[in-house]
Amino acid sequence: LLAVHAMNHATDATRFLIAPTLTAAQASSDGFLQSPTPNHPNTAGQSDHQAWLDTHFSLAEQSQPALSGDAADADGDGLVNLFEYVYRLNPRAADSADPLHVRLEQHPVGMKTNWYLTASFPWRSGIHDPRYEVQVASDLHETWNRGVGPHTVPVGSPVYNGDGTEIHTVRDVVSAAEAVQRFMRLGIEWN
């Protein structure tokens, strides 16, 4: 499953799921990034994701993919459960703020400073599964740039929030001066 949370600098956020078209390979060659610390089981031997499911859904509810599955939106806030998990949110409480923040920002590159489409988002600390990929495009009808090749670059190191999440920030490699329009979206895939 690849879940996608999309936004561009001109419109409000749109969240949707797309078909599983990406394949997991090495993080260095497939465009996906991951936290450097492994997703260790908790003291009960469960994965962090299973512990999250157990916290928010009964066993009976966990057998209902339309309620507790990755693509479900139990609280109707537009964020599917997979994003609620990685953003460390409660899937039972509608969130009013959009965790994905996309904006134009100045960044120095070489001897010049240019404006770039930049995205920041929270990520559950210490997990490596699922992984994320920030994708870019010049047109919503073209193929999104993803996979092999540097289409985005990290801006600094992730910043720990003290609440079990860290903020990851990336920017497009194409400056605003080089493109009429650019779009970004955040994809998530289980290893």
Which structural class matches the secondary elements?
A: alpha+beta
Main sheet?
A: 5 strands, antiparallel
Number of helices, where a helix is a run of at least 4 consecutive DSSP H or I residues: 5
How much beta, percentage-wise? 25-35%
Reading the helices and strands in chain order gives: EEHHHHHEEEEEEE
C-alpha end-to-end distance:
10 Å
**Weakly predicted, low-confidence segments:** 7-45
Number of strands: 9
Mean residue pLDDT: 77
Rg: 17 Å
Global shape: elongated
How helical, in percent, are the residues? Answer: 10-25%
Oligomer: single chain
Notes on the structure:
With 191 residues, the protein is α+β, with helices and mostly antiparallel strands. The chain contains five helices and nine strands. Strands 3, 4, 6, 7 and 8 form a five-stranded antiparallel β-sheet that branches. Strands 2-1-9-5 form a four-stranded antiparallel β-sheet, with no helix packed on it. The longest helix has 9 residues, at 48-56. It starts with a strand and ends with a strand.
Jot down its keywords.
191 residues; alpha+beta; four-stranded antiparallel beta sheet
Describe the secondary structure blueprint for this structure:
Layout (H helix, E strand, L loop, with lengths): L1 E7 L5 E5 L8 H4 L17 H9 L2 H4 L2 H4 L12 H6 L14 E9 L2 E13 L6 E7 L14 E3 L4 E2 L4 E11 L7 E7 L2
Antiparallel strand pairs: 1-2, 1-9, 3-4, 4-8, 5-9, 6-8, 7-8
